[in-house]
Design goal:
Elements: H1 7-14, H2 17-20, H3 34-41, E1 45-46, E2 54-59, E3 65-66, H4 68-81, E4 84-87, E5 93-99, H5 103-111, H6 145-155, E6 171-174, E7 188-195, E8 198-205, E9 214-220, H7 225-239, H8 250-257, H9 259-270, E10 279-280, E11 290-292, E12 298-302, E13 308-309, H10 311-324, E14 327-330, E15 336-341, E16 357-359, H11 381-387, E17 391-394, E18 408-414, E19 423-429, E20 441-448, H12 449-466, H13 471-477, H14 484-497, H15 512-523, H16 537-548
Helix pairs in contact: 4-10, 6-7, 7-9, 8-9, 14-15, 14-16
């Protein structure tokens, strides 16, 4: 049977997005068709039936670099039109609550600032990201911003590709020995590497919010990255699937054809032989409030309120940068970096302590059930900050909070399994995210929000007792050497008994009987044992409902978080 193009592709056949834009100024934003909504995404404008006349504009900021004047001008627009603004997990900006009458004016004004909304949504190469300390931090080896701008300028308004790729493509590149956060969730990641005594980049392909990019066994010199990028985009344009929408990412192309076939398709456009991969140069490092730069100056991490900003904040930051001749950069961790300070002090003060917490847009997006950014108040923020634990919080399974690429990941979902509550979070734990070894495993399918603080606090307490300095190392050496269900049972049994019994690194590979024996040594008297059969699944369900069923409690209660000493 002949395959049928997905709905988005059928619209592209009828009218190319670049041709749709020719009549842009005559669009009636109060009366949009389904096709209009598809096309508008290619120019940074997003809405659905659910938003009832409210629009989102996304601004791409290549490499996360924005001038103080641009930042100040965006703040003026946000202020004038009473918009909501957030930083994205791709170092960009989103403007929310744009009314239909103002879409065209705001779109024009934003694009006149020297930044662009083009191809920031839809089936395009999305905003290209790098590390916030690219070129200036003490770990920087190759400055990648010139390469980022080559790729950005090539793709923006290129008629062949505007909205015409089979699906979105996310590109990450870093020339640093150590990065603030990982880039392995990108479709394509160019990671700093060394071969034959020369620095360049290893290529990783097929990442997404729920998968890590895999090594392609390709090494590129600095001046080869752009040509590879062009070949990759063309190969994906020509050969990527345009049928079942959920299977059109580069990940699925590799899954269907294999990495070698994918490389062959790219090489056909690249027109020369690939070198085998070099040695990836990637170490773990702790990044604190201030970071030393290569020139002896300092960078400062301004922690946003889970990516939310106010116009007054933006204007204060822009004014400071102008007066002190410093740079403003956005990180993929949704924080703002001020680079070029003469000493480790600054008059700006971050509003929160959430620098290691990444959140999606929450209910600013139609796919999310909860606000997500507000739901972070259920978390033990002080402890998360103290240990610099990486947390990703998504509002749906699409995973824009990168919850599978963090130490502790969460998805805010609805549930009616625990009595008088309809809100909760699925919890994931233990990604080996720094080197892209693995994504996080599921700990619990659902925990009501009102119990989230105690569950995450216990997880962190067990980590503290383990003696490890880094949660990721603890997960690698201990948690991930046991089955998912056993770790779930261990956490539940500790919650039931109000204990915190250390889980030690196993001396050998465990099987179910070994894990059952270990559990019985500490928790033989608990009443979940009749539910343990050939696995722990029924026991997890029983004990979870016993501990978390809510009767009459306010499901929207949030523990009040007091800000104490900054770091």
């Amino acid at each position: 049977m002949e395959k049928k193009l997905n709905k988005r592709e059928r619209y592209k056949v009828q009218l190319k997005p670049i041709d749709y834009y020719k009549d842009f100024e005559n669009i009636d934003f109060d009366s949009l068709s389904e096709g209009d909504r598809f096309y508008l995404q290619d120019f940074g404008i997003f809405t659905t039936d659910f938003l009832e006349g409210e629009f989102t504009l996304r601004i791409r900021i290549p490499g996360g670099r924005v001038t103080p004047k641009q930042f100040e001008s965006i703040a003026d627009i946000v202020d004038e039109y009473d918009l909501k603004i957030i930083l994205t997990a791709r170092s960009g900006i989103q403007l929310h609550d744009v009314e239909s009458d103002n879409v065209l004016d705001i779109h024009k004004r934003i694009n006149a600032l020297g930044v662009s909304t083009w191809q920031s949504f839809g089936d395009n190469v999305r905003n290209i990201v790098t590390d916030a300390y690219d070129g200036r931090g003490k770990y920087s080896v190759i400055e990648t911003y010139p390469i980022v701008m080559q790729m950005h300028n090539y793709i923006i308004q290129n008629p062949r590709y505007v909205g015409m790729l089979p699906r979105r493509v996310s590109i990450g590149i870093s020339g640093n020995r150590a990065d603030i956060t990982s880039f392995f969730s990108n479709d394509i990641y160019f990671g700093l590497a060394k071969k034959d005594n020369e620095f360049g980049f290893n290529v990783y392909m097929g990442g997404k919010n729920t998968e890590v990019a895999k090594p392609a066994d390709i090494f590129l010199k600095e001046d080869e990255v752009f040509e590879f990028f062009k070949a990759l985009v063309e190969a994906f344009y020509l050969h990527g699937s345009r049928y079942t929408r959920s299977k059109t990412r580069i990940f699925h192309m590799i899954e269907e054809h294999g990495m070698n076939k994918m490389k062959a398709l790219i090489q056909k456009e690249y027109k020369k032989e690939f070198q085998n991969a070099g040695k990836l140069i990637l170490e773990k490092a702790k990044f604190s409030e201030f970071h030393e730069l290569k020139d002896g100056l300092f960078g400062f991490c301004y922690q946003t309120d889970c990516s939310r900003l106010t116009p007054s904040e933006m204007k204060d930051i822009a004014s400071f940068a102008i007066q002190n001749n410093t740079e403003i950069r956005f990180g993929i961790d949704q924080n703002i970096y001020i680079l070029g300070l003469k000493e480790k002090s600054i008059s700006l003060e971050s509003p929160t302590i959430t620098d290691t917490i990444l959140t999606c847009a929450g209910n600013l997006c139609p796919y999310a059930v909860w606000s997500i950014k507000d739901e972070t108040s259920y978390l033990p923020l002080e402890k998360i900050n103290e240990h610099q634990i990486q947390v990703g919080f998504s509002g749906c399974v699409k995973g824009c909070g990168r919850h599978r690429h963090t130490d502790i990941g969460l998805i805010g979902l609805k549930t009616n399994n625990f009595g008088d509550t309809d809100g909760g979070a699925r919890i994931f734990i233990g990604a080996q995210h720094s080197d892209g070894t693995s994504t996080a495993r599921q700990l619990f399918s659902m925990v009501p929000f009102v119990h989230l603080h105690s569950v995450v606090s216990l997880v962190i307490r067990l980590f503290e007792l383990s003696g490890y300095e880094e949660f990721e190392d603890y997960a690698t050496d201990v948690l991930n050497k046991y089955s998912e269900d056993f770790v779930s049972m261990w956490i539940l049994a500790n919650l039931e008994t109000n204990k915190a019994i250390i889980l030690k690194e196993p001396s050998k590979e465990n099987n179910f009987e070994d894990e059952k024996k270990l559990l019985k040594e500490e928790f033989a008297d608990l009443d979940f044992w009749p539910h343990v059969g050939e696995n722990f699944y029924a026991a997890i369900s029983y004990l979870g409902k016993k501990l978390w069923t809510i009767e009459g409690a306010d499901p929207h209660y949030k523990p009040k978080i007091q800000r104490t000493n900054y770091r």
